[in-house]
């Protein structure tokens, strides 16, 4: 029973350590890997931006300025585009270490400042969606596994395949039309009702900030605006989590200890909740980490329809306008989110399954 | 080499029946999926016969509701939506096959080289694959497509850039397990070059699993490509492409039919491939197969 769970073993976190020092060493190693990954991602993004046939100067300067060589040269000097490429990258890394992500060529503000505004909007949306998907997806996955090969399983299989087959942007459009335009059940776009002021900026999550400030009308508006886009985002991840929950619950149902639990007369509900779902959660949490990444992808499309001022919209506009510092900034954030998610997943393993110790 | 293949320990009749029962073609989902795929391929091939007008003809009043005359209504330029949905299959299907093929070939080459040579070559290539993996697909594809310029061709390239790593990982694993086999050693001893060994001896061993993965990947390819077109980074107007048509529907969201039908087309195509792919995976993955047998 030592390496009963292949997912946990594969995560590389399955070895043993004895003391709290193990955790520290684990975190230190993770941090080192994170720095490397971050450098790698910025390098890929940087190489990519160098391969661009388009010229950022022509993309960002007005029609008249392009004809003026002095203006183009000034633009290039301002953003350091006149220096050798390797030097540009090293400069970028140096600045990055000081928290300086450069200036956006489009918004003429610091990229870090832009990101501080847009990133929380997307994280708040993605967190809403992932919680929703976990609740629905895990519950339905368990139902499917318990009824294996009977009609609820067959129906749910179609449902989950349907979920992962739907084009997110189209679901967004249909939901927008039905729930907002046709029946007016939910607000259509943005993070708050028109005319409402954002709560004082503490975390950037409107629901948290409004609650902390006691502005309950703002809080309610923020929650109502979150429902529609996060529902749309969850369609895909529910399908994904359902499949994996079903598979890992089925794997665990075959274990002897489950038979033993049933044999001693425990109610089926207790067997499932305590003896099956808990070990299954290790695999489910891993997939949830992956699902969170796919939520970021979905956010690009969903934010577009719901005019959600988030990272996806920012990424889209900077990509279309070849705003290189902004594209690089988005890459760094994406890398950071990926690293934090993986770390969280690894730490959660230990909470869920005490047999797993971090090294 | 003509060696008669002997079946080691031929399975008993019971096991064979068991396998037949799990064969993909006995599964209703796979049948539905397969039928839908065939249907869409037929629609694409026969488009000029099925559609009464060309995809770009602006022969009707704008934004007409669906009616007997225009089953799916007309769009913002007075084009018949049904026509454009039919012709859209001629854009999305071939491109999805093409880009999956490109990604599979690129990934297989990278994976073979990495697995065969090992060492720092392996390390470097696989770290690169990890990096691409870590990136949310559409964000990377968006950056590539925007960098190369918004064109359908560039969107295809962008999706290839995003999709190859899964093939590279799969093939690397297969090559690693085949590398130490005796027939590879024999081939090297006979004086084959590394290249010849890879192409002649290793390729047949990796072709099967790669084909299965490619079948599973077609649906995702359709989704990513139409997503890029939806954002305006793929097919450009007036091309009848489903993602771009949904974007037109978003611009006229109060006329539901403009966006609904092209989206349904994407959904049915992706669903069809996922039905087939899911059944294939169940039939071939020993872990799920065991779970089914129990």
From TrEMBL, chain A:
Gene3D superfamilies with a match to the protein in the record: MetI-like
Membrane topology value: Multi-pass membrane protein
Annotated transmembrane regions: 31-52, 125-146, 158-180, 222-242, 282-306, 326-352
Chief localisation class: membrane
InterPro entries for this protein: BPD_transp_1_N, MetI-like, MetI-like_sf
Record bears the keyword Acetylation: no
Record has ATP-binding as a keyword: no
Domain ABC transmembrane type-1, first and last residues per copy: 119-349
Subcellular location: Cell membrane
Record keywords: Cell membrane, Membrane, Transmembrane, Transmembrane helix, Transport
Family that this chain belongs to: Belongs to the binding-protein-dependent transport system permease family.
Protein name (record): Peptide ABC transporter permease
Species whose genome carries this gene: Microbispora corallina
Automatic annotation (TrEMBL), chain B:
Keyword ATP-binding attached: no
TM region positions: 29-51, 95-121, 128-148, 154-171, 206-236, 256-277
Location within or outside the cell: Cell membrane
Keywords attached to this entry: Cell membrane, Membrane, Transmembrane, Transmembrane helix, Transport
One Pfam family matching this protein: BPD_transp_1
ABC transmembrane type-1 domain segment(s): 93-277
Membrane topology: Multi-pass membrane protein
Family label: Belongs to the binding-protein-dependent transport system permease family.
Protein name: Cytochrome c550
Species: Microbispora corallina
């Amino acid at each position: 029973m030592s390496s009963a769970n292949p997912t946990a073993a594969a995560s590389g976190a399955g070895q043993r350590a004895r003391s709290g020092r193990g955790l520290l060493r684990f975190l230190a190693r993770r941090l080192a890997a994170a720095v490397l990954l971050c450098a790698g991602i910025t390098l890929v993004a940087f190489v990519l931006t160098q391969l661009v046939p388009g010229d950022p100067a022509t993309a960002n300067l007005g029609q008249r300025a392009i004809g003026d060589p002095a203006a183009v040269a000034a633009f290039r000097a301002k953003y350091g585009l006149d220096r050798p490429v390797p030097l540009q990258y090293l400069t970028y890394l140096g600045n990055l270490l000081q928290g300086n992500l450069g200036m956006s060529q489009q918004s003429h503000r610091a990229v870090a400042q832009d990101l501080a505004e847009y990133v929380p909007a997307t994280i708040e949306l993605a967190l809403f969606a992932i919680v929703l998907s976990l609740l629905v997806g895990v519950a339905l996955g368990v139902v499917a596994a318990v009824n294996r090969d009977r009609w609820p399983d067959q129906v749910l299989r179609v449902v989950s395949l349907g979920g992962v087959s739907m084009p997110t942007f189209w679901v967004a459009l249909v939901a927008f039309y039905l729930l907002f335009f046709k029946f007016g059940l939910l607000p259509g776009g943005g993070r708050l009702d028109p005319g409402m002021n954002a709560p004082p900026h503490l975390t950037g999550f409107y629901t948290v900030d409004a609650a902390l400030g006691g502005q309950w009308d703002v809080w309610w508006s923020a929650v109502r605006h979150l429902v529609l886009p996060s529902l749309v985002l969850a369609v895909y991840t529910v399908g994904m989590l359902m499949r994996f929950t079903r598979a890992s619950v089925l794997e665990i149902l075959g274990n002897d200890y489950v038979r033993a639990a049933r044999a001693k007369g425990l109610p089926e509900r207790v067997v499932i909740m305590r003896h099956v779902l808990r070990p299954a959660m290790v695999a489910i949490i891993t997939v949830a980490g992956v699902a969170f990444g796919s939520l970021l992808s979905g956010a690009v499309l969903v934010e577009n329809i719901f005019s959600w001022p988030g990272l996806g919209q920012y990424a889209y506009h900077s990509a279309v306008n070849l705003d290189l510092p902004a594209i690089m900034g988005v890459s760094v954030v994406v890398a950071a989110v990926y690293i934090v998610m993986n770390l969280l997943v690894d730490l959660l393993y230990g909470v869920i399954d005490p047999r797993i110790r971090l090294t | 080499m003509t060696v008669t293949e002997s079946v080691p320990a031929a399975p008993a009749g019971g096991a064979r029946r068991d396998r037949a029962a799990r064969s993909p073609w006995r599964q209703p989902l796979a049948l539905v999926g397969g039928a839908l795929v065939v249907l869409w391929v037929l629609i694409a091939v026969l488009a000029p016969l099925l559609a009464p007008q060309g995809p770009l003809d602006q022969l009707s009043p704008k934004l007409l509701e669906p009616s007997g005359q225009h089953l799916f209504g007309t769009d913002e330029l007075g084009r018949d939506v049904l026509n454009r949905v039919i012709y859209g299959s001629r854009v999305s299907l071939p491109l999805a096959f093409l880009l999956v093929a490109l990604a599979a070939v690129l990934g297989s080459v990278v994976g073979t080289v990495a697995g065969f040579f090992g060492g720092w070559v392996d390390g470097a290539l696989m770290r690169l694959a990890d990096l691409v993996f870590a990136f949310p697909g559409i964000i990377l594809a968006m950056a590539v497509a925007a960098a190369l310029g918004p064109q359908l061709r560039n969107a295809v390239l962008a999706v290839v850039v995003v999709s190859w790593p899964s093939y590279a990982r799969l093939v690397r694993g297969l090559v690693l397990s085949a590398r130490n086999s005796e027939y590879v050693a024999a081939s090297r001893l006979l004086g084959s070059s590394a290249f010849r060994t890879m192409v002649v001896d290793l390729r047949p061993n990796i072709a099967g699993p790669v084909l299965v993965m490619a079948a599973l990947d077609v649906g995702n390819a359709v989704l990513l490509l139409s997503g890029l077109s939806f954002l305006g980074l793929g097919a450009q107007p007036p091309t009848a492409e489903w993602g771009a048509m949904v974007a037109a529907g978003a611009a006229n969201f109060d006329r539901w039919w403009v966006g609904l039908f092209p989206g349904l087309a994407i959904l049915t195509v992706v669903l069809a491939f996922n039905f087939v792919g899911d059944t294939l995976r169940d039939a071939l993955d020993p872990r799920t197969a065991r779970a089914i047998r129990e």
